[in-house]
Specification:
The protein has about 170 residues and is α+β, with helices and mostly antiparallel strands. It contains 7 helices and 9 strands. A hairpin with a 2-residue loop joins strand 3 and strand 4 (about 45). The protein has helices at about 10-15, 45-55, 70-75, 80-85, 115-120, 140-150, 170-174; strands at about 1-5, 25-30, 35-40, 45, 60-65, 90, 100, 105-110, 130-135. It is globular. The longest helix is centred in the last third of the chain and has 15 residues, at about 140-150. A 7-stranded mixed beta sheet has the order 1-9-8-7-2-5-6, with helices on both faces. A two-stranded antiparallel ribbon has the order 3-4. It has a single domain, classed as Endonuclease, Chain A.
């Protein structure tokens, strides 16, 4: 399966349709990271609650992002203390890709950041115009994973010219 999706479909097919079904791992890459609320059991909850549920099921969660999250995200994060050890995060100022990889079998890549306006449940009048692809085609999923993993493992760090802005640089190479 390879499908081109836009706008609200990203929320429906990725955020609501797939993420909560992760069994082994969930990798998310985003440039911008803000408070995002999603539907769960007939109510709207912080997306971090979905991640907390996954952490409780021992799903490995990796979050790669370019800048510190906004204050509402940080406040919500404090409500889910299991994410302190149940979710790994790396902040890399050069990250601009947006991707979701689930269990090495499904991937989204496109323009949407992990924000309400990008991937959230906002109305069509308050959303960004986004597009991307979703796929379960092995070759494409592997290529998206390889890019994520190269950044995660610090493959680009030695030659990066923005090391002085990267809080995690020393930890990656340690």
């Amino acid at each position: 399966m390879l499908d081109y999706i836009t706008d609200r479909d990203i929320y429906d097919k990725v955020i609501c349709g797939r993420i909560a079904q992760a069994r082994q791992f969930l990798w998310i890459a985003t440039s911008d990271l803000k408070d995002l609320h999603v539907a769960k059991g007939g109510r709207m909850v912080p997306f971090l609650e979905i991640l907390s549920d996954l952490a409780n099921r021992h799903v490995e969660i990796r979050l790669l992002h370019a800048k510190e999250p906004g204050p509402a995200f940080r406040k919500d994060f404090d409500r889910y203390p299991n994410l302190i050890n149940g979710m790994e995060r790396i902040l890399c100022p050069r990250v601009h890709l947006k991707a979701v990889i689930i269990d090495g079998r499904f991937a989204y890549t496109g323009s949407a950041n992990l924000t309400g306006a990008g991937m959230g449940a906002k109305s069509e009048h308050r959303r960004n115009f986004e597009s991307g692809i979703i796929t379960d085609e092995k070759v494409l999923v592997e290529k998206i994973m390889q890019q994520f993993d190269a950044i995660w493992s610090g493959a680009h760090c030695p030659s990066c010219q923005r090391k002085k802005f990267c809080a995690d640089y020393k930890d990656i190479l340690a």
